[in-house]
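Researcher: Let's run the pair from yesterday's discussion. Sequence first, then tokens, for each.
Model: Starting with the first of the pair.
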Amino acid sequence: MSTRALRIVLLLGVSVFGVSCKSTDRGPAEATGVRWEARTGLSGTGQALAVLDDGRLVASTDAGLSSSSDGGLSWSPLDASGLPRGRVTVMTATPSELVAYVWGQGLYGSDDGGSNWSALGDLPLHPIVVTATGTLAPMVPFVLKADPEDPTHLVAAGPGGYLVTDDGGLNWRNVDINGPTGKLNILFTGAAVRGDTVYAAAQLPEGLLPPFFSAILEGGVHVSEDRGETWEVLGEVFPSPAPSGITVGPDDLAYVGTQDTGVYRLNELGQWESIGGPSDVVAIETYESGIAVGSGSRGPWRWELESKTWSRGAVDGAVAALAADHALMTDGGFLALDPAPGVAAGSPEPAGGTVYLAFSMHTNLYHSFRGNSDGEDGFGKDIRIIRNTLDWLDTLPEVHADWDIENFFSIDGGEGYGYGWLKTHAPDIIERIRARREAGQDGIRLMSWNNGLVSWQTFEEFEQSVERAKASYTNAFGSFDRGVQPQENTFSPDHVGWYRQLGIEWITLFNSMTPFTGFPLDHRLQGREGYNPVTLRDGDDTMVMVPVYHHGDVVDHGSLAGWARQLSDQFEGDTLLVIHFDADAESWLNFNLEIEAAAELDFVRFTTIQGYLDSHQPVGSIELPGDLADGVGDGFQSWAEKQVNQDVSTKVAQARHLTDWARSLAPGDTGVNDLVG
């Protein structure tokens, strides 16, 4: 069977899903003793942070490595000789060595505080992952931890395995962490080590995996007392499906952060108890008198052990990394816990916003990479998964769907042009979507009429494409919304005016942080803009743009329910979270589990994109500087490298020349224009 859904989880992020999120006590609003204090920030996007044995700090941003000897008051760049170019995404420090992972390059070690580096051993994926995905690439660690009692003992964890080394990182071994059911953990988000005791936290995105994988994998929190040789479940069943990190506190108890319900502590009775904190924990560390916690949206927090109180820094935004009592923000900001007496900033109450959820299926039965048969190696897979999606949609009457469907290959057969594989092989799908549309249940917006590269089209070609798509939708579904999702996010600024001229009022583009994406490399939406319509401008022309996200982003946020809670906690008023992905993705097969859990949250509503736009105005305005394809300016490379596209583009260019010649030879001849049209 296809392993695409598992690859999504392994390569785009680690997450889980399962049960509904219960409300959690956020803790008292005041704390005393220490507070987060802003220090000197760094240039670039924050990545990783480590504290050396002598107290020096080493921070990584996409601008390189920097060090500080005064607690972050000043920074100096490091030459980092021997370290390959690339982002250092995780770091840890032993008493004798600084260890760092360079994205796509591997592990490296430095024994002089980061000035000189040498390569360490590879991190092999777990054998079951190699078998399931066919990849031999090393594991990408999300967590790298050093044993404070043994500088040669480190652990690394991430999507694809949990590894242990006893020689400072030269050689790594995979460990099997099996729960009481015999299922395997491979999607690790947290690790901690102290002597022979090793801890692991793993998630399971059950709603994003086909049944085959969810039947053999599991998540949870486990502990080993013999350096990873044997494992057992830590405490009772962990109460959250989305653990995101683990640390051992100054009281020698385990603390686990989650991406849906804050932080849990394992008490002396072996029971997990909620201690509150932010709902989107992305990092958790121990400091001298408590626990430091990094939020994915509301900065650094701390839990004071003696007073059992929470406080947070006076900054919002995502924490990139924590190291003891220091925090590096993704925007390069840097904070430290100030030991001076005083009242710390209180922990705020959740904003209590309402979250509207919409689900969008990108339907295109043409697959240049897979073939065009009616079996599983072609569009037969699309038909199977779309039918399954419609089946579980029928069991959730309060849930809506949005569809954007390619026309030439998928719908238009029998109209004088096109293949129309849905019409010829699965007319029931068209009939069911039309019935849902007529009942006011689903939205339907345009896609690229013939899977074409709309960024390369002249206005005349663009107009023909849009008008043919309109006619196709009207014939198949009776009506359509005045929106569009261009194939592979192909977009040119001129399209703002072109779409509006042709009656299309809004567009959806990915605002994802993982491939595929739409425009984040060109423009970062701020705050509520990421979850509401914004005005897209090109000169005097405007249209509405709706940011959308995909299954990889659900993985990154822990679960759909967890993401919804994070938005409700962060923003007052209404937000719109649109999950948009290929309709043939196997990650839709069990997605109803994600939706059912989110439906239990009292602040969640379900909508179509058009339904939300009917009652919500844009909250911001952006202007994109250039063309997009697959989210980046060089995204056209994947189109240009295919021979079939080179052949088609050559024929299109020849046709354009012939058209120009015909019009030059017969100016004013309406027959020429009729023939071209």
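Model: Moving on to the second of the pair.
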Amino acid sequence: MFSDDIATDLFVQNDEFESESDFEQTGQFDEVCPSPKRQKVNDFFASLDDESTEESDGSDESDWEDIPIPSVSNGLIDETAAPESFNIVISNEDSDEAKKQRQRREKLQTLIKEKQKRVSIQYLSVLCYIIHARIRNGWISSRLCHKKLKGLLPESFMKSNYKSLKKLMKNPTNNTVNGESDKLLVYVIKYLIKWFRFNFKIDQNGLRVLGFLPSQGDPTTYFPTANTKIGSLHDFISVIKKFKHNRDTGAQVFTAILRSLGFEANLCMSLMLLPTLRSANLQPKLDKEKLSRNKDNDLLYPYFWTELINPFDRLEIFVVETICFHNEQDRLIRLKRFPSNQRKILSLNEHFTERYAPNLDRFNIMPPMSYVISFTNNNAVKDITPRYKSDISYRYFGRLDLRTESGRVALLVQSLVRSFNKHHNYTFEDYKEFDTLREIAFLNYSIPLTFSSMKKNPNIVTESTLRYNEVLDHNAKPIGSVSITKTKRLEPIYFKNAIIIGKSEQQWKFLGRSIKPDQIEFPIKMTDALQPRTIFKRKVFNSNMLNNQSELNRTKLYSFDQTCPYIKEKVSVSETGEVSLPRNKYGNIEIFKDLMIPDDCYWLKLSDSEKIFRYFKKNKSNPPFAEAMDYVPVVVGFDFRSKLGNAVPIKDGIIILKLQEIQAKKVWLHGKIMIHKLEVQFKELRLLTTWKFFLKSLRIKERVDKDYK
């Protein structure tokens, strides 16, 4: 049996009843919930026997009083003493201002939830679009699909033009100087485009995501349903046999035709992500009669198209679209894949086209293009957005700005591309193409002409639009100049990868880094934008302002280069040989990363470890198998919400000497066994107490029924 002190220190009894008022009505609260310090289990059994004996005799009549019952007349209660009327006053506890504040908070919470919902839908759509296109790309690379498509092509074409081109493709060294092979290749591609447009029938709608689904809206009334669903390769081959479906499937079938003829053709998909702003468009209701006539012809830009690598010049690609564009010159565009070794200056006209990016005008109802993903013959995934979209330099910075929504989406896309290509071996041409795309992104940008648009621009920055914790690298080279302030002064423009972000010493400590000792006196910036969050620091802040010492409130900011891995605190040994663990003035140690654990120490993260060791230290006793050991509670963070104006430390485990790790775990196990036994003891005591209350209530009811019948 454990002592009452152990019960108090190691276990807090949970009351199963809602409040003390449940027992105050019977006057039995002190007897029903006895304190463990005042009554033990044996005394409880004895008191239960004594009380049952006294109440069974019925000798104590003084505890009961007669209750006057209203007189009864003609079977009805006499109501003469009742008041004639009464008033009920309902007071308005909340003032009008409090109601407005509550309504504003509720509205803000609703807006935040709606924003989170739109962002989640956007992230999920990125994943679904890429997976959908990758599955289709795998189908159009199958041999069975190629065999069916070859059988559909005209025999005259296969035996004449294609046969001649195939010979030139097998022996590229025999290519004539005057470009006959190039002319023949262009002729074959244009012939296939015209043949495909004439034979492939559009009989249903494809992707048509123009906005978010309204709340409580039926998807069937807003999004078209496919008449012929494609769920497997067998279904896709059935569509090839019929040679009719929507225009998205048509672009995939045309890519499969080029692959069946031996060309290296990549399937391209435009990710047109919906904006997550509050003013984002909603999906319009379907006009089924109109859609049955135009079959997505009101969508002016394609979701899918094809990139064909020139077999005679791998520096060049043909961008092919067969259904959406009506101008013949837009269906076949020639671009440079990457420049030759001799050329050093890159020309945007040869490497970039804006024909596939939707224009924001009254004729276009499609959302803007966000990304263009390419899928190769071996199902590798590439991000080729710079070839079709401008103003995306930020995606090729060494560090993405995850504070912005565009930066987080870019990180998601890059992570998905790396995940899908984890088994893909990149070639030298792939690396040259990636370098070219990066160079295009850094050349193809626009300069805002207003202060607000410059501040929102993710690519470039001026000194006047820097944030409170940002400075420009002194080695950065400007890329231009612009006048966006009221003074009309020209300011140099820099890419945002020239920004250096500073953090305070405490912020770097949260990240597991320390300021270099020789850099403490050389911060990159001093700021007063970081307001204190605790009451004590606010008092100091206000006192400095009243005493005209505002410079004391400024916070020093340091860059990453001015930091080093966290400088660990050390274990001290006194002259007498006593070992002392490191701790702060509050008796704790702050550890936010595992690398901050002091040398020769071990972080014990087991539950209730601090409570168990505190009990043994408080009672100056240890288990018989353990010797005295020092410990320090570990603070892993702070809670500013549970107690406003205070930083409540969040603790997780303790640190001990590494030599005492096994011994400390034994002490912890011994303490957990004690806690478990106490829990069982108090549970049994609670059950007995409950039975006592139940039996006593039955006796009271029996006595009341007996005396007042």
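Researcher: Give me one sentence on the second I can quote.
Model: The first helix runs from residue 4 to 10.
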